[in-house]
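Pilot study result, target chain (396 residues):
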Amino acid sequence: MSTDTIGARIKYWRLRRGGMTQNVLAGLAGVSQSYISQVEAGRKTVERRSTLIGIAAALQVTVADLLDQPGDPTDPAKAGAVDTVPLIWAALIEIEEGERRTATWTAEQLSVGIKRSVELRDQANYPELARTLPTLLLAAAGHDDGGRALAQVGYHASACLRHLGYRHLARSAAKVALSAAEQSGQAAWVGAARFATTQSLPIEAAGVASRVAGRALTDLQGAAAAPDVRQMLGMLHLSAAFSSAVDGRADDARAHLEDAAREADTLGDPEDGAGFNQGGFGPTNVRLWEMSIAAELGEYGRVVELSQAVRPDPLRAAVRHQSYWLDLGRALAQSGRSDREALTAFIRAERAAPTTFGLNPLAHDAVVAIVRRAQRRSVSDDLRVLARRVGVDVDA
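Predicted structure:
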Protein backbone atom coordinates (compact mmCIF):
# COMPACT_ATOMS: atom_id res chain seq x y z
CA MET A 1 0.00 0.00 0.00
CA SER A 2 1.30 3.45 -0.92
CA THR A 3 1.87 5.61 2.16
CA ASP A 4 2.92 8.84 0.49
CA THR A 5 0.26 11.01 2.15
CA ILE A 6 -1.04 11.45 5.68
CA GLY A 7 -4.35 9.95 4.59
CA ALA A 8 -2.66 6.89 3.13
CA ARG A 9 -0.72 6.40 6.35
CA ILE A 10 -3.92 6.72 8.37
CA LYS A 11 -5.46 3.96 6.24
CA TYR A 12 -2.33 1.82 6.61
CA TRP A 13 -2.40 2.01 10.40
CA ARG A 14 -6.19 1.60 10.54
CA LEU A 15 -5.96 -1.69 8.66
CA ARG A 16 -3.04 -2.76 10.85
CA ARG A 17 -5.31 -2.34 13.88
CA GLY A 18 -7.31 -5.48 13.19
CA GLY A 19 -9.10 -4.01 10.22
CA MET A 20 -10.56 -1.11 12.20
CA THR A 21 -13.38 0.46 10.20
CA GLN A 22 -13.56 4.11 9.24
CA ASN A 23 -16.62 4.44 11.45
CA VAL A 24 -14.77 3.15 14.50
CA LEU A 25 -11.76 5.38 13.85
CA ALA A 26 -13.99 8.40 13.31
CA GLY A 27 -15.80 7.75 16.58
CA LEU A 28 -12.57 7.38 18.54
CA ALA A 29 -11.03 10.48 16.95
CA GLY A 30 -14.13 12.67 17.24
CA VAL A 31 -14.60 13.29 13.52
CA SER A 32 -17.07 12.03 10.90
CA GLN A 33 -16.72 8.88 8.83
CA SER A 34 -17.03 10.89 5.63
CA TYR A 35 -14.12 13.07 6.76
CA ILE A 36 -11.91 10.01 7.35
CA SER A 37 -12.95 8.63 3.95
CA GLN A 38 -12.01 11.84 2.13
CA VAL A 39 -8.71 12.19 4.02
CA GLU A 40 -7.73 8.61 3.22
CA ALA A 41 -8.58 9.20 -0.43
CA GLY A 42 -6.42 12.32 -0.49
CA ARG A 43 -9.31 14.66 -1.36
CA LYS A 44 -9.13 16.40 2.02
CA THR A 45 -6.19 17.26 4.24
CA VAL A 46 -5.86 17.10 8.01
CA GLU A 47 -5.56 20.81 8.68
CA ARG A 48 -5.53 20.90 12.48
CA ARG A 49 -2.80 19.42 14.63
CA SER A 50 -5.37 18.67 17.32
CA THR A 51 -7.15 16.41 14.80
CA LEU A 52 -3.87 14.66 14.04
CA ILE A 53 -3.39 14.06 17.77
CA GLY A 54 -6.86 12.53 18.05
CA ILE A 55 -6.42 10.25 15.04
CA ALA A 56 -2.94 9.16 16.14
CA ALA A 57 -4.20 8.33 19.63
CA ALA A 58 -7.08 6.30 18.20
CA LEU A 59 -4.63 4.35 16.03
CA GLN A 60 -2.13 3.98 18.91
CA VAL A 61 0.68 5.58 16.93
CA THR A 62 2.51 8.89 17.18
CA VAL A 63 1.77 12.00 15.16
CA ALA A 64 5.28 11.60 13.73
CA ASP A 65 4.19 8.20 12.36
CA LEU A 66 1.32 9.86 10.50
CA LEU A 67 3.56 12.67 9.25
CA ASP A 68 6.25 10.17 8.24
CA GLN A 69 8.93 12.10 10.11
CA PRO A 70 11.85 12.15 9.84
CA GLY A 71 10.91 10.47 6.58
CA ASP A 72 12.78 8.86 3.73
CA PRO A 73 16.53 9.50 4.11
CA THR A 74 16.89 9.47 0.33
CA ASP A 75 14.35 12.28 -0.11
CA PRO A 76 15.92 14.75 -2.57
CA ALA A 77 14.49 17.64 -0.54
CA LYS A 78 16.98 16.79 2.19
CA ALA A 79 19.82 16.91 -0.33
CA GLY A 80 22.26 14.79 1.66
CA ALA A 81 21.57 16.46 5.01
CA VAL A 82 20.51 13.13 6.51
CA ASP A 83 24.08 11.87 6.18
CA THR A 84 25.13 14.61 8.59
CA VAL A 85 22.47 13.96 11.25
CA PRO A 86 24.44 11.15 13.00
CA LEU A 87 27.42 13.51 13.21
CA ILE A 88 25.25 16.26 14.70
CA TRP A 89 23.88 13.75 17.21
CA ALA A 90 27.40 12.65 18.16
CA ALA A 91 28.48 16.27 18.61
CA LEU A 92 25.48 16.98 20.86
CA ILE A 93 26.23 13.91 22.98
CA GLU A 94 29.89 14.92 23.28
CA ILE A 95 28.89 18.39 24.46
CA GLU A 96 26.20 17.11 26.85
CA GLU A 97 28.68 14.68 28.40
CA GLY A 98 31.15 17.48 29.02
CA GLU A 99 33.82 16.15 26.68
CA ARG A 100 34.76 19.61 25.44
CA ARG A 101 37.57 19.68 22.93
CA THR A 102 40.35 22.20 22.94
CA ALA A 103 39.43 25.11 20.71
CA THR A 104 40.80 24.72 17.19
CA TRP A 105 39.01 27.72 15.65
CA THR A 106 40.01 31.27 16.25
CA ALA A 107 37.40 33.74 17.45
CA GLU A 108 37.30 35.19 13.94
CA GLN A 109 36.73 31.78 12.35
CA LEU A 110 33.92 31.05 14.76
CA SER A 111 32.33 34.43 14.05
CA VAL A 112 32.42 33.71 10.31
CA GLY A 113 30.89 30.27 10.88
CA ILE A 114 28.07 31.66 12.99
CA LYS A 115 27.41 34.43 10.48
CA ARG A 116 27.08 31.81 7.76
CA SER A 117 24.67 29.78 9.89
CA VAL A 118 22.56 32.90 10.40
CA GLU A 119 22.37 33.42 6.63
CA LEU A 120 21.36 29.80 6.02
CA ARG A 121 18.69 29.95 8.70
CA ASP A 122 17.31 33.18 7.21
CA GLN A 123 17.10 31.41 3.84
CA ALA A 124 15.53 28.30 5.43
CA ASN A 125 18.30 26.29 3.78
CA TYR A 126 18.30 23.63 6.48
CA PRO A 127 20.04 20.86 4.51
CA GLU A 128 23.05 23.12 3.94
CA LEU A 129 22.92 24.37 7.54
CA ALA A 130 22.93 20.75 8.76
CA ARG A 131 26.18 20.08 6.95
CA THR A 132 27.91 22.89 8.87
CA LEU A 133 26.63 21.96 12.31
CA PRO A 134 28.84 19.06 13.49
CA THR A 135 32.02 21.15 13.22
CA LEU A 136 30.34 24.41 14.24
CA LEU A 137 28.80 22.93 17.39
CA LEU A 138 32.12 21.56 18.60
CA ALA A 139 33.92 24.77 17.70
CA ALA A 140 31.41 26.81 19.70
CA ALA A 141 31.63 24.40 22.64
CA GLY A 142 35.40 24.72 22.72
CA HIS A 143 35.36 28.51 22.57
CA ASP A 144 35.85 30.39 25.83
CA ASP A 145 33.22 33.13 25.62
CA GLY A 146 31.05 32.15 28.57
CA GLY A 147 28.64 30.06 26.53
CA ARG A 148 27.10 32.67 24.26
CA ALA A 149 28.36 31.15 20.98
CA LEU A 150 27.15 27.69 21.95
CA ALA A 151 23.76 29.08 22.97
CA GLN A 152 23.35 30.59 19.50
CA VAL A 153 24.66 27.59 17.56
CA GLY A 154 22.64 25.21 19.73
CA TYR A 155 19.54 27.21 18.89
CA HIS A 156 20.34 27.03 15.17
CA ALA A 157 20.86 23.28 15.47
CA SER A 158 17.51 22.84 17.21
CA ALA A 159 15.66 24.82 14.55
CA CYS A 160 17.42 22.94 11.76
CA LEU A 161 16.77 19.47 13.19
CA ARG A 162 13.12 20.29 13.87
CA HIS A 163 12.53 21.39 10.29
CA LEU A 164 14.23 18.24 9.02
CA GLY A 165 11.83 16.16 11.15
CA TYR A 166 14.19 15.12 13.97
CA ARG A 167 12.31 16.56 16.94
CA HIS A 168 14.02 14.31 19.51
CA LEU A 169 17.42 15.64 18.42
CA ALA A 170 16.03 19.17 18.20
CA ARG A 171 15.16 18.88 21.88
CA SER A 172 18.70 17.72 22.68
CA ALA A 173 20.10 20.73 20.83
CA ALA A 174 17.72 23.02 22.73
CA LYS A 175 18.99 21.56 26.02
CA VAL A 176 22.57 22.23 24.95
CA ALA A 177 21.58 25.79 24.06
CA LEU A 178 19.84 26.27 27.41
CA SER A 179 22.80 25.00 29.42
CA ALA A 180 25.13 27.33 27.53
CA ALA A 181 22.74 30.27 27.86
CA GLU A 182 22.44 29.76 31.61
CA GLN A 183 26.23 29.62 31.83
CA SER A 184 26.44 32.91 29.92
CA GLY A 185 24.07 34.60 32.35
CA GLN A 186 22.30 36.37 29.46
CA ALA A 187 18.57 36.29 30.00
CA ALA A 188 17.68 36.83 26.34
CA TRP A 189 19.58 33.72 25.29
CA VAL A 190 17.97 31.75 28.12
CA GLY A 191 14.61 32.86 26.71
CA ALA A 192 15.66 31.84 23.21
CA ALA A 193 16.69 28.38 24.40
CA ARG A 194 13.40 27.95 26.27
CA PHE A 195 11.56 28.98 23.10
CA ALA A 196 13.56 26.39 21.14
CA THR A 197 12.52 23.79 23.71
CA THR A 198 8.83 24.56 23.25
CA GLN A 199 9.20 24.30 19.48
CA SER A 200 11.06 20.99 19.63
CA LEU A 201 8.51 19.07 21.71
CA PRO A 202 6.29 16.55 19.91
CA ILE A 203 2.87 17.78 18.82
CA GLU A 204 1.23 15.51 21.39
CA ALA A 205 3.01 17.49 24.13
CA ALA A 206 1.31 20.80 23.27
CA GLY A 207 0.10 21.16 26.84
CA VAL A 208 3.62 20.65 28.16
CA ALA A 209 4.98 23.15 25.64
CA SER A 210 2.57 25.85 26.79
CA ARG A 211 3.55 25.24 30.43
CA VAL A 212 7.27 25.36 29.58
CA ALA A 213 6.67 28.70 27.87
CA GLY A 214 4.66 29.91 30.86
CA ARG A 215 7.44 29.09 33.31
CA ALA A 216 9.98 30.80 31.09
CA LEU A 217 7.79 33.92 30.96
CA THR A 218 7.74 34.01 34.76
CA ASP A 219 11.48 33.41 35.10
CA LEU A 220 12.37 36.22 32.66
CA GLN A 221 10.28 38.93 34.30
CA GLY A 222 13.22 40.16 36.37
CA ALA A 223 15.12 41.09 33.20
CA ALA A 224 12.12 42.34 31.24
CA ALA A 225 13.44 45.90 30.88
CA ALA A 226 15.99 44.83 28.24
CA PRO A 227 14.70 45.06 24.63
CA ASP A 228 16.20 41.68 23.66
CA VAL A 229 14.48 40.02 26.61
CA ARG A 230 11.20 41.70 25.75
CA GLN A 231 11.42 40.27 22.24
CA MET A 232 11.88 36.81 23.71
CA LEU A 233 8.99 37.34 26.11
CA GLY A 234 6.86 38.12 23.08
CA MET A 235 8.05 35.02 21.22
CA LEU A 236 7.32 32.86 24.26
CA HIS A 237 3.79 34.28 24.42
CA LEU A 238 3.37 33.35 20.74
CA SER A 239 4.63 29.82 21.36
CA ALA A 240 2.31 29.46 24.35
CA ALA A 241 -0.59 30.78 22.27
CA PHE A 242 -0.08 28.27 19.47
CA SER A 243 0.48 25.36 21.87
CA SER A 244 -2.68 26.30 23.76
CA ALA A 245 -4.64 26.30 20.51
CA VAL A 246 -3.37 22.81 19.65
CA ASP A 247 -4.24 21.72 23.20
CA GLY A 248 -7.82 22.90 22.70
CA ARG A 249 -7.60 25.92 24.99
CA ALA A 250 -8.74 28.71 22.69
CA ASP A 251 -9.21 31.26 25.49
CA ASP A 252 -5.63 30.77 26.72
CA ALA A 253 -4.40 31.05 23.14
CA ARG A 254 -6.14 34.39 22.70
CA ALA A 255 -4.88 35.69 26.05
CA HIS A 256 -1.26 34.93 25.12
CA LEU A 257 -1.80 36.50 21.71
CA GLU A 258 -3.07 39.67 23.37
CA ASP A 259 -0.01 39.79 25.63
CA ALA A 260 2.29 39.31 22.64
CA ALA A 261 0.47 42.04 20.70
CA ARG A 262 0.85 44.51 23.58
CA GLU A 263 4.58 43.79 23.76
CA ALA A 264 4.92 44.09 19.98
CA ASP A 265 3.09 47.41 19.83
CA THR A 266 5.65 48.98 22.16
CA LEU A 267 8.62 47.56 20.26
CA GLY A 268 7.54 47.86 16.63
CA ASP A 269 8.93 45.70 13.84
CA PRO A 270 12.73 45.23 13.97
CA GLU A 271 14.49 47.72 11.72
CA ASP A 272 16.70 45.05 10.19
CA GLY A 273 13.80 42.66 9.66
CA ALA A 274 15.31 40.16 12.07
CA GLY A 275 15.68 41.47 15.61
CA PHE A 276 17.21 39.43 18.41
CA ASN A 277 18.19 35.93 17.29
CA GLN A 278 16.37 36.47 13.98
CA GLY A 279 13.04 36.06 15.75
CA GLY A 280 11.57 39.03 13.90
CA PHE A 281 9.33 39.83 16.84
CA GLY A 282 6.99 42.75 16.31
CA PRO A 283 3.45 43.54 15.15
CA THR A 284 3.92 41.83 11.76
CA ASN A 285 5.11 38.56 13.28
CA VAL A 286 2.30 38.58 15.84
CA ARG A 287 -0.25 38.84 13.01
CA LEU A 288 1.43 35.97 11.15
CA TRP A 289 1.24 33.78 14.24
CA GLU A 290 -2.37 34.86 14.69
CA MET A 291 -3.08 33.51 11.21
CA SER A 292 -1.51 30.16 12.12
CA ILE A 293 -3.47 30.01 15.37
CA ALA A 294 -6.73 30.84 13.62
CA ALA A 295 -6.03 28.02 11.16
CA GLU A 296 -5.40 25.62 14.04
CA LEU A 297 -8.71 26.66 15.60
CA GLY A 298 -10.49 26.03 12.29
CA GLU A 299 -11.29 29.73 11.80
CA TYR A 300 -10.46 29.77 8.09
CA GLY A 301 -12.46 32.88 7.30
CA ARG A 302 -10.49 34.67 10.01
CA VAL A 303 -7.23 33.56 8.37
CA VAL A 304 -8.30 35.10 5.06
CA GLU A 305 -9.42 38.26 6.86
CA LEU A 306 -6.09 38.61 8.67
CA SER A 307 -4.17 38.04 5.44
CA GLN A 308 -5.73 41.16 4.02
CA ALA A 309 -4.41 43.28 6.90
CA VAL A 310 -0.79 42.07 7.01
CA ARG A 311 2.07 41.12 4.69
CA PRO A 312 5.31 39.41 5.70
CA ASP A 313 7.44 41.91 3.76
CA PRO A 314 9.01 43.64 6.83
CA LEU A 315 10.54 40.34 7.98
CA ARG A 316 13.73 38.75 6.71
CA ALA A 317 13.23 35.08 7.54
CA ALA A 318 12.01 33.02 4.60
CA VAL A 319 9.94 30.75 6.84
CA ARG A 320 7.80 33.67 7.99
CA HIS A 321 6.99 34.52 4.36
CA GLN A 322 6.21 30.88 3.69
CA SER A 323 4.02 30.64 6.79
CA TYR A 324 1.87 33.51 5.54
CA TRP A 325 1.25 32.01 2.10
CA LEU A 326 0.86 28.45 3.35
CA ASP A 327 -1.69 29.37 6.02
CA LEU A 328 -3.57 31.48 3.49
CA GLY A 329 -3.56 28.71 0.88
CA ARG A 330 -4.82 26.11 3.32
CA ALA A 331 -7.52 28.48 4.57
CA LEU A 332 -8.67 29.28 1.04
CA ALA A 333 -8.87 25.58 0.22
CA GLN A 334 -10.84 24.83 3.39
CA SER A 335 -13.18 27.82 3.34
CA GLY A 336 -14.77 26.98 0.01
CA ARG A 337 -12.79 29.42 -2.11
CA SER A 338 -11.52 28.27 -5.48
CA ASP A 339 -8.60 25.88 -5.64
CA ARG A 340 -7.06 28.32 -8.11
CA GLU A 341 -6.71 30.96 -5.39
CA ALA A 342 -5.29 28.37 -3.01
CA LEU A 343 -2.84 27.18 -5.66
CA THR A 344 -1.55 30.73 -6.18
CA ALA A 345 -0.86 30.99 -2.46
CA PHE A 346 0.90 27.60 -2.39
CA ILE A 347 3.11 28.62 -5.30
CA ARG A 348 4.11 31.74 -3.37
CA ALA A 349 4.80 29.61 -0.27
CA GLU A 350 7.01 27.22 -2.22
CA ARG A 351 8.96 30.07 -3.80
CA ALA A 352 9.55 31.68 -0.40
CA ALA A 353 11.28 28.59 1.03
CA PRO A 354 11.41 25.65 -1.39
CA THR A 355 13.18 23.24 0.95
CA THR A 356 10.86 23.60 3.92
CA PHE A 357 7.79 23.49 1.66
CA GLY A 358 8.98 20.19 0.23
CA LEU A 359 9.63 18.79 3.70
CA ASN A 360 6.28 19.89 5.15
CA PRO A 361 3.78 16.97 5.13
CA LEU A 362 0.81 19.34 5.46
CA ALA A 363 1.98 21.35 2.45
CA HIS A 364 2.57 18.18 0.45
CA ASP A 365 -0.90 16.86 1.23
CA ALA A 366 -2.53 20.19 0.39
CA VAL A 367 -1.05 19.96 -3.11
CA VAL A 368 -2.15 16.32 -3.40
CA ALA A 369 -5.72 17.26 -2.47
CA ILE A 370 -5.87 19.98 -5.12
CA VAL A 371 -4.42 17.59 -7.73
CA ARG A 372 -6.99 14.91 -6.94
CA ARG A 373 -9.87 17.36 -6.99
CA ALA A 374 -8.61 18.70 -10.31
CA GLN A 375 -8.32 15.34 -12.05
CA ARG A 376 -11.97 15.28 -13.06
CA ARG A 377 -11.45 18.37 -15.16
CA SER A 378 -7.72 18.87 -15.77
CA VAL A 379 -4.51 19.64 -13.99
CA SER A 380 -3.29 23.13 -14.83
CA ASP A 381 0.29 23.69 -15.88
CA ASP A 382 0.98 25.69 -12.70
CA LEU A 383 -0.35 22.88 -10.52
CA ARG A 384 1.56 20.26 -12.48
CA VAL A 385 4.85 22.15 -11.97
CA LEU A 386 4.27 22.67 -8.25
CA ALA A 387 3.23 19.04 -7.79
CA ARG A 388 6.37 17.75 -9.45
CA ARG A 389 8.55 20.08 -7.36
CA VAL A 390 7.20 18.53 -4.15
CA GLY A 391 7.25 14.96 -5.43
CA VAL A 392 3.56 14.52 -6.25
CA ASP A 393 2.79 12.28 -9.24
CA VAL A 394 0.07 14.11 -11.15
CA ASP A 395 -0.56 11.07 -13.34
CA ALA A 396 -1.13 8.61 -10.48
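One observation from the pilot: Residues 69-185 form one domain. A full batch analysis is planned for the follow-on phase.
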